Amino acid sequence: MENDCMKGTNTDGSRSDDYCVYCFAMGAFTEEMTMEEMIRSNIEYLDEWNASTGVEMTEEEAVKQLREFLPTLKRWKR
Predict the structure, then answer these.
(1) Is the same domain home to 2 and 24?
(2) What is the distance in angstroms between the CA of the first residue and the CA of the last residue of the chain?
(3) Which one of 23, 44, 53, 61 is most buried, counting C-beta atoms within 10 A?
(4) How far is residue 77 from each of residues 33, 48, 55, measured CA to CA in Å?
């Protein structure tokens, strides 16, 4: 994440380089969920994301991308 305001916070209040503000606050995950639950949660915001980016991604395309991308993140790394 290039923008510090998108970074979550560690227990000491410093910014986390590993997790986003939506997933991580004060050194803990904001919600415990499986990767599939995270995908479903993200899909709920697809219309907003499409509108803000000018992209018209379908739900199927978004799910496919998330299934490829999420396993590369520290939280989901296999």
Answers:
(1) yes
(2) 21
(3) 23
(4) 14, 27, 27
Q: Which structure tokens are listed for 53?
A: 């980016």
Same structural domain for residues 37 and 73?
Answer: yes
* Partner residues linked to 9 by β-bridges: 15
Chain segment 7-56, per-residue pLDDT in tens: 999 999 999 999 999 999 999 999 999 999 999 999 999 999 999 999 99
Give the orientation angle of helix 46-53 with respect to helix 59-69, to 10 degrees: 90
What does the buried/exposed string (b/e) look like for 7-32 if buried means 16 or more CB atoms within 10 Å of the residue's CB? bbbbeeeebbeebebebbeeeeeeee
pTM above 0.90, yes or no: no
Which structural domain, as residue segments, surrounds residue 44? 33-78
How far apart (Å, rounded) are the C-alpha atoms in residues 42 and 64?
12
Residues 51 and 62 in one domain: yes
